[in-house]
Amino acid sequence: MKHFKQISIIACLIFIAFIACQPNDKPEKESVDRKKEEAKTIDVSRYSGNINIDGKMVVKEVSEALMGALSDAIAKHGTAGAVEFCNGAAFPILDSLAEFYGVGLKRTSKRYRNYDNRPDTLDKAILDNLAALGDQGVEPSPVSMKFSNGDGIYYAPIMTKPLCLQCHGLKSRGDIADDVWRKIRELYPEDVAYDYNLNELRGVWGVYFPAEYRARKGKAEMPDIPR
Ligand code: HEC
Asked: Cα–Cα distance between 117 and 96 in angstroms, integer?
């Protein structure tokens, strides 16, 4: 019986690892719609008060919303058109989700496309640390910290997936099509967010939890994500 228990635990772990490793760069339209429906009913009192748990939840919801909007934009307007979409829609989407969750939200990177996403001193230290771990072959994982005033911040690494390379990939390898490249240069003349490889650290999500977030209760209306 004991033996059986061990085997089922191992089987379970393998199964979890298998699920966790499934690429999710192309969320099905259906699952995006379902997610949106579910998100509408999110009760922010669901916050556990532990920023590692709550940060993980917020990053998951927000990155799925952004990913859904990006995939829709690519399907509707092509990749070059989606660059324009990201240019106008990324900040409004993030701002409305930040308001919904009652947190501060940012995506930042050492090699960024939009100057407004540039890292501050703390972001830089975190990014350097995660990159150094990556160089040693350690997979970057989330980091959180609490400040003396009770506020906290949760960082989660953003890794590149195949889809990302269309706009952030290696130029010399032809990852970025000519029309996409022209659009990027036109909208972001100072851009350095290209020449990334697959599974490379692209940046981090930063979720800033004000001390009073734990007291947040009640349902908020999920904002409409522009499509
Ligand atoms: C259609 C082109 C396109 C695709 C595909 C794309 N991005 Fe971007 N990405 C952009 C644009 C444009 C911006 C700048 C948005 C803005 O102005 O806020 C951006 C910004 C970012 C930023 C914020 C930091 C910065 O550089 O300004 C991160 C992080 C990021 N992308 C990661 C990813 C990841 C990860 C993927 C794949 C899941 C991805 N992107 C796919 C076009 C794209």
From this structure: 17
